[in-house]
Write a structure and sequence with these properties.
This protein has 20 helices and 2 strands. By secondary structure, the protein is an all-alpha fold. The protein has a two-stranded antiparallel sheet with strand order 1-2. It has a single domain, classed as Na+/H+ antiporter like fold (Up-down Bundle). The N terminus is likely disordered.
Length: about 400
């Protein structure tokens, strides 16, 4: 089964086209590839860039397409949840009061849902076919974002707690929602999916190590504790889900259609709950700015941005913008195809903010450390979705992008 569509946790509904011919100009007859897997798995044939295959996809039932469509609305859920958290933070009190254990348990379930749609052998196959672009994307993920998180925190003069939170966010692996945005942008979805899995598996070592190196000057960092937590709530559930998928395929087949929507709703709840827990501090910044009645609008905005709310919003926006921009430019310099550039840009710019929230609430005493990851869940998805829709409007399909190259 194709890894691209097997890992469907974060993909929008497939198009209704059932047959797709892809062949080189001099080839007269397409080669039909039939699936060799048992009949309980979807009949899908994945195409590499230079493959000569006829891809046959079995149409999904309407209710599965509806669930996939609902799952693709993750940016909408987290935005609505953020608005509710602003006006009625008590709506999430039942979840916040049980933290941080509720946060860790939720992230573990999200990663388990991701693992249920993953076949490690397909991951290895794709890695052997396209090692250069995957390796470049993973290196870019763990160099661009951590470095610029530190630069932005120093440039804006953030407090030690906010600096640690921003650096922790930058050191997190790629976010699962990046696959949805890459699909919208007509980027290379296969590359995005593999990068997400690889950076997630590497987070056990790289996230604690980079956080200790870059943020260790602000507070004492327990790198071993961070590593153990990352292993428990991210890597172990992913591997467990993959094991269950190969061991109990019939049971997993009944569960997987509901896994995407379950995961995105739980991710939204996780981010918005942490945001609601700090909304009082944000509201105080807004009130203080509005009390300056004799000040001009510019002065009020400066007062707002100088407070906690403005510092978090500005720093998180700059971090994600830098990830999108530098990720795309670096991929362009290395002469990757346009579809790959978009996938790398989106993957670098979108982080696993849920992991940042869990690590911040579990290992740091100051609740302010969790603010950048929590705010990122809202800002990142709005920025990423906007970028995806922009790219979708200015170009044709992924195949047309490859033909132009």
């Amino acid at each position: 089964m194709s890894f691209t569509l097997t890992h469907r946790l974060f993909l929008s509904p497939p198009q209704r086209t059932h047959l797709r011919f892809t062949f080189k100009p001099h080839t007269l007859k397409p080669i039909v590839s039939s699936p060799s897997k048992p009949s309980y798995r979807p009949i899908v044939s994945s195409l590499s860039h230079n493959s000569e295959h006829l891809s046959v996809t079995q149409a999904k039932p309407r209710w599965e397409n509806m669930l996939s469509t609902a799952a693709s609305l993750y940016p909408l859920y987290v935005t609505v949840g953020g608005v509710v958290a602003c006006f009625k933070p008590s709506a999430f009190a039942w979840f916040v009061e049980r933290g941080p254990s509720s946060y860790s348990f939720s992230l573990g379930l999200i990663m388990l849902a991701m693992g249920l749609t993953l076949e490690l052998k397909d991951l290895l196959n794709l890695f052997t076919q396209r090692p250069l672009s995957i390796l470049f994307g993973c290196v870019a993920q763990y160099t661009i974002m951590p470095t610029f998180a530190m630069i932005i925190s120093k440039t804006l003069g953030l407090s030690p707690s906010l600096s640690v939170g921003l650096i922790l966010l930058g050191c997190c692996p790629g976010g699962a929602a990046s696959t949805v945005v890459t699909f919208i942008a007509r980027g290379d979805v296969s590359l995005s999916t593999v990068m997400t899995v690889c950076t997630t598996l590497g987070a056990v070592i790289l996230t604690p190590l980079l956080t200790m190196v870059l943020a260790g000057t602000y507070v004492s960092i327990d790198a071993i504790g961070l590593s153990i937590s990352t292993l428990q709530v991210v890597v172990a559930p992913v591997l467990l889900g993959s094991y269950l998928q190969s061991t109990f395929p019939l049971v997993v087949k009944m569960i997987t259609p509901f896994a995407p929507l379950f995961a995105v709703l739980l991710s939204s709840l996780l981010a918005c709950s942490v945001f609601s827990g700090n909304v009082v501090r944000f509201n105080s910044s807004i009130v203080n700015a509005s009390l300056v009645s004799d000040a001009s609008l510019v002065s009020r905005l400066q007062s707002l941005l100088s407070g906690g709310l403005g510092a978090v919003i500005l720093s998180v926006m700059l971090l994600h913008f830098t990830g999108f921009f530098v990720g795309y430019i670096s991929a362009t310099i290395c002469r990757f195809r346009e579809a790959e550039r978009r996938a790398i840009s989106i993957e670098v710019g979108m982080q696993n903010s849920s992991l940042g929230v869990v690590l911040a609430t579990t290992h740091f005493t100051s609740p302010v450390v969790a603010l950048p990851p929590a705010m990122s869940a809202v800002i990142m998805n709005i920025m990423g979705s906007s970028l995806g829709f922009f790219w979708r409007q200015i170009s044709g399909s992924k195949q047309e992008l490859e033909d132009q190259e």
